[in-house]
Amino acid sequence: MRTLSPAGAVTSETHPQATSGWLPSGRAGARFQVASPLAVRGAAYASARLPTLNELYRSFTVFPVTTLANPALTPERLRGAEAGFELVAARRLSLTATLFTSRLADAVANVTVGTNLRQRRNVAAIVSRGAEIEGRWSFPHGSLAASWTGYRARVQSSDALDGKRPAQTPDHAASATLTYSPATTVDVSGTVRRTGRAFEDDLNVDALPPATTADAVVRWRFAPRLAVELRAENIGNVRALTRNQRGSIDLGTPRTLWVALSAR
Q: How many CB atoms within 10 Å of residue 109?
């Protein structure tokens, strides 16, 4: 790794030690059709992830916090299992539900090591357990689809991080989309999304409050190959924080209106 000054002169140069090894990964699952509308399924899996070059060697600053790289990072190792069912009734209603549990050993996290200073480090593990539910109802000229995910993710560590929620991990997320086509040339859809409370940092100090946003789209095909589309994002102009570092914040998309003409 070489660091250059603004003038192009080499200010530092390091040669990390080469490493090698083997990490297993795999997945096994089964699905059983209990009856015509109902099926149950389950799976178990194991995988691994190598630290990226950025995590190993590239430090960065997002005001006011600097995050240091760490060439000593080791690979993450995931073990998990899930079980659930699928229900399809009269081809108009479908419902799936899944319970899951996983343990990510040696998870790479941005760990606070000083005032406005973090470093990428391996924590002992992140354990996650939760449920996912998805449903869809079809009716003449339209459909309604909804999903919900709720989970409890916690860090396992021998230091202050033990029991903390991983950064940028909400406790739940949900969405619902209604589509309607009153005519062959018109499509209308609306989506509502809900994201639960999360934290920006590993110590769970800088909160990202929950937020609910709504979008809508209207598409009109007024000619065989021409269509006009009206799109509205974040209709309620909700103030949704996507980053919060000691009061330095980023906000999600504000109320935005789009008009587009497409040709096919």
A: 20
Q: What confidence tens digit (pLDDT) does each residue in 196-212 have?
A: 999 999 999 999 999 99
pLDDT in tens, 12-44: 777 777 778 888 899 999 999 998 899 999 999
Identify the CATH number of the domain defined by range 31-263: 2.40.170.20
> What string of DSSP letters covers the chain?
-EEE-TTS-EEEE--PPP-------EEEEEEEE-SSSEEEEEEEEEEEEPPPHHHHH--EEETTEEEE--TT---EEEEEEEEEEEEEETTTEEEEEEEEEEEEEEEEEEEEEETTEEEEEEEEEEEEEEEEEEEEEEETTEEEEEEEEEEEEEEE-SSTTTTPPPTT--SEEEEEEEEEEEETTEEEEEEEEEE--EESSTTS-SEE--EEEEEEEEEEEEETTEEEEEEEESTT----EEEEETTEEEE---SEEEEEEEE-
Q: What is the CA radius of gyration of the chain?
A: 24
pTM summary value: 0.86
Q: 93 is written with which tokens?
A: 């209603």
